[in-house]
Amino acid sequence: MRIMVRTLRGDWVALDVDGATTTVAQVKGMVMARERIAVAMQRLFFAGRCLDDDHSTLADYGVRHDSVVFLSLRLATDAYQYVQISRRTVMNFSTN
Predict the structure, then answer these.
(1) Does 2-94 carry CATH code 1.20.120.530?
(2) Among 10, 26, 48, 58, which one is most buried in terms of CB atoms within 10 A?
(3) Is 62 exposed, middle or buried, given 0-12, 13-18 or 19+ CB atoms closer than 10 A?
(4) How far is 68 from 56, CA to CA, in rounded Å?
(5) What pTM was computed for the model?
(6) Please, what's the b/e burial string for 22-34 (b: 16 or more CB within 10 A of its CB; e: otherwise)?
């Protein structure tokens, strides 16, 4: 079967998979090969649900032929944002 992955740039990537046996981890590997995004950084969504169990199959999540899966990036666990409000004040926001 074929699924469509919507990338971060808004592009579409068609992947040929076997829904009954293809795991989420395998799909992430296919996306990495095409988009050069590390598997650990990928988050896949289908029908409003995060496909967070890499060992589950696409069928476990209800993904069927021509389904659209959305790709998002996982934030690094130790990411910080620094916002300068004025010349004297800098605020630090943790993403944890």
Answers:
(1) no
(2) 58
(3) exposed
(4) 17
(5) 0.76
(6) bbbebbbebbeee
pLDDT tens digits for 71-91? Answer: 999 876 655 555 555 556 555
* Other Cβ atoms within 10 Å of 5 Cβ, number: 22
Residue 93, CA distances (Å) to 73, 86, 89, 96 in order: 19, 16, 13, 9
Beta bridge partners, 40, equal none
Distance of alpha carbon 3 from alpha carbon 14, whole angstroms = 6
Instruction: Please name the residues in contact with 49: beta carbons below 8 A apart, sequence gap of 6 or more.
Output: 61
DSSP state of 23: B
- In sequence order, the 6+-apart residues with CB closer than 8 A to the CB of 88 are none
